[in-house]
Amino acid sequence: MTDRYSSKHRRAGRRVGPSGIAGRVTLAIVGVAVVAMWVSAAFYVRDRAKTTIHLFSESVSHRIGIIVPLVEQTPDSDRSNLLQALNSPTLWISMTESDRPRIPDGWRADSEFETEIAPLLPQLSDRRIIIRKFHRWGPNRQAAPPMPGRYPPPPDLFNSRVKVVATVQMKTGGWIYFVASSDTTSLRWAMRMVFWMLVATILILVTSFWAVHRMTRPLRQFADAAKRIGLDVRSPPLPEEGSRELRNATRAFNLMQERLRRFVDDRTMMLAAISHDLRTMLTRLKLRVEFIQDEEQQYKAIADLDEMQSMLDSTLAFARDDAADEPRTLTDLAALVGSLCDDIADTGADVSCTGPDRLPYNCAPGAIKRALGNIVSNAIKYGGKAVVTLTDEIDRIEITVSDDGPGIAEARREDVFRPFFRLEESRNRETGGSGLGLAVARSIVRRYGGDILLEDGVRGGLLVRIVFPHTPMP
Question: How many domains does one find in the chain?
Fold first, then answer.
């Protein structure tokens, strides 16, 4: 039989992403918000860079268009002082009377700046103009082209890594250099934007998770109530809160639970009435049996009546589910299992028990003892012996009961948990019992969120695994 606990953990290990509604909705909201935010940021950066480049190109072109004719009209002796006076943190100017020197490899042609700057210099169209851009990300000193003549190199212009050099050939001979900087893609500006976007992403994540977790809390309560009603129809009704749809669903759920409770109560009352009437009739029959002269027939009749009485009591106890009314207390499960095995061994049965010295567990000791007693008794009756092992696993508490019997065919292992089902079809109580032992045991164990599993023993026989969660279901 498949171990639903092991398979559950295997499925959890293969699952990618959250499994709950709150986690999935939060992931969807945050995913959409983050993608939209980063896409918007990308478009904003692109548009900002284009706008900055355009404004930068207009400003540089305007100043170049004014400075070049002014330098050409200035006497040679005054040009040096003029250029030093015209230098600014955003535009550094120098000139040479000789041929244009070679520009370093880091400065390359850039169609974007050429397209932006060249059309804005119509008054210099009769001059040769060369525009280059610094393409590498590195220290600013690497971005400074060698300035011709005795002019100093340009300073750190705006601490920007995007720099443009425009060389214009003058009519009077020589070349004039313009080194300009633009903050179009400032790394510090980008880092600040990324920082605030990360802050916004975290705020969206926290806020979304809190809001979705709060909205889905009634659904978790609804699921817990559905589990409880499968174990106890008398569990308290759900509070009607949350959205309109959830309130309607909760109201319908509570109404269904009330109908189930009335149905169970009516069935129990009917069985109690039938039991009362049948007991009265059985008592009368026992009195009449006393008048049977044949002792053998009298003995058989009394045995049949006792069997009917026992079956009637078992059926009524199963219908009432008396174990559900027992309060739970912190119980030493190891001591409980050990004492049960000792009591059965005192009757002469072959029972052995191993486990930890102490294992506290919050349970109803009478119900657990009844469930385990039914399974151990079956192992002794059909397998000749019972080997009981209690273990405290990482994810569960497990009690195994193995025997040396013929075992149960896999196709019929689920059938034996049905009430009144018996593999031995003679209906003789001495060989088959009433067919309620395993049904009662599984009902008790599942009330704690556990289960009973039947498997083939390692050395033959049947292996019964009783599995409890560390935290029992309320």
Answer: 3
pLDDT score of 7 more than 50: no
> Is there a single domain that holds both residue 53 and residue 156?
yes
The rounded distance, in Å, linking the Cα atoms of 162 and 114 is 15
Q: Kindly state whether residue 431 falls inside one of the protein's structural domains.
A: yes
419 lies in some domain: yes
In whole angstroms, give the CA distance from residue 421 to residue 412: 10
Q: For residue 124, give its domain range.
A: 47-188
Query: What pLDDT sits at residue 398?
Result: 92
State the CATH number of the domain containing residue 298. 1.10.287.130
Residue 300 CA to residue 306 CA, distance in Å, equals 10
- Whether 202 maps to a domain, the answer reads no
The reported pTM is: 0.48
The secondary structure of 332-345 as a DSSP string is EHHHHHHHHHHHHH
For 97-137, write each residue's pLDDT tens digit.
766 656 666 676 776 666 767 677 776 777 777 777 775 54
The runs of H, that is alpha helices, within 216-332 are 217-231, 244-289, 295-320
Question: Is the domain of 285 the same as that of 390?
Answer: no
* CA–CA distance, 359 with 332 (Å, rounded to integer): 5
- Checking if the pLDDT of 213 tops 70, the result is yes
Is pLDDT of 466 > 90? yes
- 386-392 and 351-354 strand pairing: parallel
**294 and 330 assigned to the same domain:** no
